[in-house]
Design brief:
about 120 residues; alpha/beta; five-stranded mixed beta sheet; about 30% helix
Length: about 120
């Protein structure tokens, strides 16, 4: 009965996503090229923002590990210039957190804040 009320004391297994760190603007050309054969997804995250952290946890929890996409993580506080270049290259105004889905060299959808978790990545994979 107490487990139902207070939860189990056993630690939950943490889901590990296949993140690739996006740390250099030169990676954007690789993302464009790879997007011609496989969907590329960029998650821009602010490590100091509570909303960004909450959205990131929800994203990780809901993410389907069987998706056939390449998943990039951009710590925009550590790599502000890369974040700026992402916005310029893909013509998407910067927001945080932000998700960009790239196919055939262009952003086919993007979302920010809570709307990130409404994006059906499976429909783009």
């Amino acid at each position: 009965m107490f487990k139902k009320l207070f939860g189990s004391s056993e630690p939950k297994e943490e889901k590990i996503l296949p993140w690739q760190a996006l740390t250099d603007s030169s990676q954007l050309e690789t993302i464009v090229e790879k997007s011609k054969t496989k969907t590329q997804v960029v998650f821009k995250h602010s490590t100091r923002c509570g909303i960004s952290s909450m959205v990131m946890k929800q994203f990780v929890s809901a993410y389907d590990l069987d998706l056939n996409v390449d998943l990039y993580y951009l710590d925009l506080l550590s790599y502000r210039s890369v974040s700026d270049e992402v916005g310029y290259k893909f013509q998407v105004m910067h927001q945080s957190p932000q998700l960009l889905v790239i196919k055939n060299g262009i952003v086919v959808t993007h979302a920010s804040h809570g709307a990130i978790n409404d994006v059906d990545l499976g429909s783009y994979a």
